[in-house]
Amino acid sequence: MGTETSDVIDILAGIEPGSSLDGIRARRLQARENAQKSYVALFEPVDFGDVAAAERYAVAAFVAGVHDEPAAAGFYFAKLAKAADRLEWVDALKAEIERARTEGPYGAFPAGPLSVEDKAGLIYRVGGDGQRVLGARLVAALEHAHLLVFRPRDAAPAAMQALLDAGWSTTAIVTLSQLVAFLSFQVRAVAGLRTLGASLGHHANAAAKAS
Amino acid sequence: MSDSIVVHANKNEPVVFTQDELGWLPWLDPFPEADLTERHWAGLVDRSRAKSDYFRLLVRDPEVLEARTKTDKDIFYNTADGLPRAERELAAAATSRYNGCIYCASVHARFATVHSKRRDDVQRLLDEGVGTDLGARWNAVVRASVALASTPIAFGKQHVEELRSVGLDDAEVVDVINSAAFFNWANRLMLSLGEPTKQTDT
Fold it and tell me: Cβ of B181 and A185 within 8 Å?
């Protein structure tokens, strides 16, 4: 229990079966198993429904990439590469990740006392080359993903309309929103656990030297 | 069938962070309650959630909602051998304050107050933001949450050391990581699929 090697957070955070962190994660088994079930529901569902597998992996690789999380980005790029008819997307996505990188969160609050905390930043739009390769539907998804990752407080009904106009159904928008929001969780759980794990390794080494 | 957005004449949008109860108005059509199937009921987990526009919108992808809900419940409610509930809620409130989710912050600031009895400190977090001084232990939780919410992620070994220095063991540090990381998921759904309102009876 708790040591299945297929747990994506464990894989990306480098948590080894039988390690101290493996034991700690096993004490929150429902959370661990359901984080994995969330991953499966989004990326390996029985029925991909309104959002194609390649679209899911492309958006995930982009989200992980703009977070500057290479392990996660590599993981989702590998899944995209297996969706063999979309190999041309990989280079276009890597170029867009470079164009899209910035620091968040930023954006505007509702007008009022919080407006003094408004922070301007990049309003990302996919470049001309990217638009040609990726197509209007994926372009809209990447622009929405950037909004969600970096400036979620700027979200507005117009962003929903832009997705509908690009061919995303209401149900597909729910799936896309969950995918980007889940990734925002997953890369942070991974980064946090990886950092904690590294500090445990340090402690263990220090203890070994002392003895 | 052509899908469309839902526009609200919301004259009661909250413009400050608050511990008051807020409502939430969806920008897309929730799934009709009368049409819910067994697959949808499983996705809702608690049958009472069928009354919520938020959950009936998310139940359009039932498997993801079910897993999300069960992840949420274990991270926040399973307090065996771990961080007290108050500090998990603090991590959720601080993350929401930093990302700018007025709705999420209202819910989890209330929970932080209920479990800590430190209403004024919680309110100061909402009023002054994540840089306010809440004492060493809460400051460590807030700083770790903020570093984790930043993009690129700024959480580093100094945050682990600070959490340890105020008395957290490794399992409690994992509870902070999970609670804060989870709200980066929740904030993005609440902020992007609808808007808060001071009317709670809509």
Answer: yes
Residue range B34-90, pLDDT digits in tens: 999 999 999 999 999 999 999 999 999 999 999 999 999 999 999 988 999 999 999
Which of B44, B56, B60 has the highest number of chain A CBs within 10 A, making it the mutation to test binding with A? Answer: B60
Q: Examine residue A27 and state whether it is found in any structural domain, yes or no.
A: no
Question: Is residue A112 assigned to a domain?
Answer: yes
Looking at chain A, which residue has its C-alpha nearest residue B75? A31
The torsion angles phi and psi of B16, rounded to 5 degrees, stand at -135, 160
ipTM for this model: 0.98
Inter-chain CB proximity A66 and B151 less than 8 Å: yes
Q: Is residue A193 part of a domain?
A: yes
Q: Are A112 and B15 in contact (CB under 8 A)?
A: yes
Domains of chain B: 23-75+191-197 (no CATH), 84-189 (1.20.1290.10)
Q: Nearest-5° angle of CA B86, CA B196, CA B44?
A: 70
Q: Does A205 touch chain B (CB under 8 A)?
A: no
